[in-house]
Q: What sequence folds into this?
């Protein structure tokens, strides 16, 4: 029988950064955000290597939706105007690991270092309150912007998965790079708990 992870109240709080509010959302809002992601053909292709959209019901059944214990989705909200510009996903795994994924839906924010600012805040929260000691991410080998963002955050390349997926538009296999950031490389202030 699988052990159920306890809910940690601090992980369900809104996180504030200099420019954004990172609001934890539930299943319905997550599906709405995933649906919005599919409306942009370039984002859809980058994430799925296809131009096929999933309907609302299929997204609800097949996506790993937030349960606020081991799976989290944060809506990225512009603190200046209150508009949603994207979302960030976190999945907790044994042993003290978390995988990360971010999607910037508003093209006006592309190239504005949103993933770096958002991930720094989210990783600090999960290191402090969930005891995460290892963050991981996987990215298509041709997604240069994401690779650069991982490097800016101090992640190290930990491996390559060859022919991990197939791009149905380009008709070619897709390799994935794996990145990780270990506890030894975390900034010192991540280990401090807020009073």
A:
């Amino acid at each position: 029988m699988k052990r159920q992870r306890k809910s940690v109240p601090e992980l369900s709080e809104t996180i504030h950064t200099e420019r954004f509010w990172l609001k934890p959302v539930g299943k319905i809002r997550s599906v709405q955000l995933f649906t919005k992601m599919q409306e942009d053909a370039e984002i859809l292709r980058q994430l799925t290597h296809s131009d096929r959209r999933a309907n609302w019901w299929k997204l609800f059944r097949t996506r790993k939706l937030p349960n606020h214990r081991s799976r989290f989705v944060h809506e990225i909200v512009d603190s200046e105007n209150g508009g949603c510009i994207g979302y960030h996903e976190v999945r907790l795994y044994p042993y003290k690991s978390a995988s990360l994924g971010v999607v910037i839906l508003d093209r006006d924010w592309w190239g504005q270092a949103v993933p770096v600012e958002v991930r720094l805040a989210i990783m600090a929260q999960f290191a402090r309150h969930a005891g995460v000691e290892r963050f991981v991410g996987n990215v298509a080998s041709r997604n240069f912007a994401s690779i650069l963002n991982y490097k800016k955050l101090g992640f190290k390349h930990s491996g390559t998965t060859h022919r991990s997926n197939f791009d149905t538009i380009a008709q070619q296999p897709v390799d994935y790079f794996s990145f990780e950031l270990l506890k030894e490389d975390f900034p010192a202030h991540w280990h401090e708990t807020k009073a």
Q: What stands out?
A: Residues 114-129 form the longest helix (16 residues).
